[in-house]
Write a structure and sequence with these properties.
Layout: E1 2-6, E2 9-12, H1 18-23, E3 28-31, E4 42-43, H2 54-69, E5 74-77, H3 84-95, H4 100-110, H5 118-123
Parallel strand pairs: 2-5, 3-4, 3-5
Antiparallel strand pairs: 1-2
Helix pairs in contact: 2-3, 3-4
């Protein structure tokens, strides 16, 4: 599954195909799930348990921003496309100026499967 969030930003699960990437003109794949898909440009496993380093999360957000700025279409995905991938997309939108809850609802409108694990939000200081 690939879901377009912004013109150059997509979220999805690990079940995409090379043909789907080509059809969406996606040129950069960021995999934050634990599995290797073979199509990713960069893989960094995040966990749903809140044990992720905030600096790593923000480094991934900056990577998304940089890739979009140079003209790439970016897919951020995890295994099921419900929590870790969408979480990073929400953090990117927040970093770009949206408040957290607006960013969550914006992504949810386009990607109803969104189910960000609360422990991920706790990693960034929300809900503690």
């Amino acid at each position: 599954m690939l879901v377009k969030i912004l013109d150059r930003l997509y979220v999805g699960d690990c079940d995409y195909t090379a043909a789907a990437l080509k059809q969406a003109d996606i040129s950069y794949v960021l995999n934050v799930g634990g599995q290797v898909t073979g199509c990713e440009n960069y893989r960094r496993h995040l966990t749903d348990d809140g044990e992720n380093d905030y600096g790593i999360i923000m480094g991934l957000v900056r990577l998304i921003k940089t890739k979009i700025e140079v003209g790439d279409r970016v897919l951020v995905h995890c295994r099921q496309g419900k929590s870790r991938g969408p979480f990073l997309v929400v953090k990117y939108l927040e970093w770009m100026g949206m408040d957290l809850f607006t960013a969550i609802e914006y992504v949810r409108e386009k990607h109803p499967a969104l189910q960000i694990n609360q422990d991920l939000l706790h990693t960034t200081g929300y809900g503690k």
